[in-house]
């Protein structure tokens, strides 16, 4: 890939995973709001631990593997349909299902500003990581780079949610992102080499928090 192509890929990745990209990610906390309510996460250290666990063996890891698999599908419609079904089936709660499906649809709708035949190959109901992986691959973005950017965007949104929930301040939030940077890079590289047999989570408390959030009366977020 030429230097100009590399620059173009970087700019597109920055646009697609920017907080300004109209997917509505700010409306979701992935169960964090319930975890704060139940005092599973009470401070900056707890917030960092929460995200570190999700990266290593939680929903962020599964999303990273799905994204890499979608990138490897090279726009093949049947494979992308199967990955989408799998991604939606892996959603551990109704809210998690709503979150990944809503973000996926919003992402694809906005990303059509960069036309490509891959949009015709993707199913109507497409989870967020599959949508990002397929579109990124179609535009020549390397899987590890796409996964790294996706994880960074997810963690940035999570830290923002933590700040709004009063768990930490803005400076502490930035420090969390800085400390998690090596782990994000490591998990992105691992996901790029992984296959579907590597899917799986071991985050029972996070899954329960997501389920319990469905019945939480007073809340800021949709998940």
Topology summary:
Layout: H1 3-16, H2 32-37, H3 44-57, H4 59-72, H5 77-89, H6 94-111, H7 118-121, H8 128-138, H9 143-164, H10 170-193, H11 204-213
Helix pairs in contact: 3-4, 3-9, 3-10, 4-5, 4-8, 4-9, 4-10, 6-8, 8-9, 9-10
Main attributes?
mainly alpha; Urease accessory protein UreF; 223 residues
Give the helix proportion (percent range).
55-70%
Low-confidence stretches: none
Beta-strand proportion? under 5%
Query: How does the major sheet shape up?
Result: none
Evaluate the radius of gyration: 17 Å
Cα(first) to Cα(last) distance is 39 Å
Helix and strand run: HHHHHHHHHHH
* CATH first level: Mainly Alpha
Structurally, the number of domains stands at 1
Count of separate DSSP helical elements: 11
Walk me through this protein's architecture.
This protein is mainly α and 223 residues long. The chain has one domain: Urease accessory protein UreF. It has eleven helices and no strands. Helix 4 packs parallel to helix 8 (128-138). The protein is globular and about 45 Å long.
Task: Produce a short descriptive summary.
The chain is mainly alpha-helical and 223 residues long. The protein has helices at 3-16, 32-37, 44-57, 59-72, 77-89, 94-111, 118-121, 128-138, 143-164, 170-193, 204-213.
């Amino acid at each position: 890939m030429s230097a100009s192509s590399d620059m173009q890929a970087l700019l597109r990745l920055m646009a697609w995973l920017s907080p300004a990209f109209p997917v509505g990610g700010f409306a979701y906390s992935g169960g964090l709001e319930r975890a704060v309510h139940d005092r599973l996460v009470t401070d900056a250290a707890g917030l960092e631990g929460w995200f570190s666990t999700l990266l290593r063996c939680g929903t962020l890891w599964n999303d990273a593997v799905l994204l890499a698999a979608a990138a490897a599908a090279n726009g093949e419609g049947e494979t992308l349909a199967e990955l989408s079904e799998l991604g939606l089936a892996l959603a551990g709660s109704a809210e998690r299902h709503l979150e990944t499906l809503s973000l996926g649809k919003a992402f694809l709708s906005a990303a059509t500003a960069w036309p490509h035949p891959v949009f015709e190959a993707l199913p109507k109901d497409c989870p967020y990581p599959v949508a990002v992986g397929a579109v990124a691959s179609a535009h020549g973005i390397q899987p590890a780079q796409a996964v790294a950017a996706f994880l960074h965007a997810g963690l940035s949104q999570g830290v923002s949610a933590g700040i709004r929930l009063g768990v930490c301040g803005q400076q502490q939030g930035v420090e969390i992102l800085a400390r998690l940077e090596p782990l994000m890079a490591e998990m992105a590289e691992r996901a790029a080499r992984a296959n579907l047999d590597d899917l799986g989570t071991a985050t029972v408390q996070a899954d329960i928090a997501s389920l319990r959030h469905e019945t939480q009366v007073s809340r800021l977020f949709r998940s």
